[in-house]
Amino acid sequence: MILDKEQGQQDELVERIGLECPYCGVYAHMSPQSVPNPASLLRDRPARVGLVYQCDSCNAPVFLRFAVKSYTDNRVELYRNFVELERPKERFAFSYLPKHTEVLFREALACYSGNHFNAFASMCRRAAMSAYDELGEGGKLRAFEEAMVAQDIAGIDDKTFAPIKRVLFDSGEEEDLPLLNGVQAGILLEVLKDIFYQCFVRRGKLTRALKVRRFFVEERTGTLQSTA
Q1: What pLDDT does 9 receive?
Q2: How far apart are CA 176 and CA 165, in angstroms?
Q3: How far does CA 63 lie from the centroid of its chain?
Q4: Distance CA 16, CA 39 (A)
Q5: Which residues contact 43 (CB under 8 A, 6 or more apart)?
Q6: Is residue 75 helix, strand or coil?
Q7: C-alpha 160 chain-centroid distance
Q8: How far apart are CA 7 and CA 21, in angstroms?
Q9: What is the C-alpha end-to-end distance of the chain, expressed in Å?
Q10: Residue ranges, the chain, pLDDT below 70
């Protein structure tokens, strides 16, 4: 991305991007709304630059941070990758989780949305331990098997998956947790969501669906008997 001192209105020159809006949750185009003055950037030469975009779906301002790739006499070149200063809130079927696990997992997701990835890992460890206790004897082994299935389905190599297993299944102190980057935190998030879905949400939905089916069958049977 290029910001040119000799060009006119910079908002019209910066390209639109697409991402999930942190406010409305819709994946939409983002149009540049406020772009730094290239002359000021060339004078101060910051290492990172903030741009404000507008969500085309809900018109909310979305703040992104770009790293500067290079400065020349009249131009500032930014890397195409950016950091979302406000991330969309992660969604999950919390009502199916045990209460204590739900509280811890909500806090874990808040850490993730704030880009606090190592705090997120710590909260994932606590949420996972709570879930294993709720599952009872063999719960941790069942969760481990679900994690291995998720690794196989996603095609994640052992080296990449190793820190995820350490966070979720090692029994050491919190100080022994590996430091995670954004990619590893994303993998941890999806794996733990899948474990919770398989261990709690799937069972809860199936149980609820069977109760509803049984209710309507009994209602129908009662109606038939009363009219016979």
Answers
A1: 46
A2: 13
A3: 17
A4: 22
A5: none
A6: strand
A7: 18
A8: 29
A9: 77
A10: 8-14, 222-228
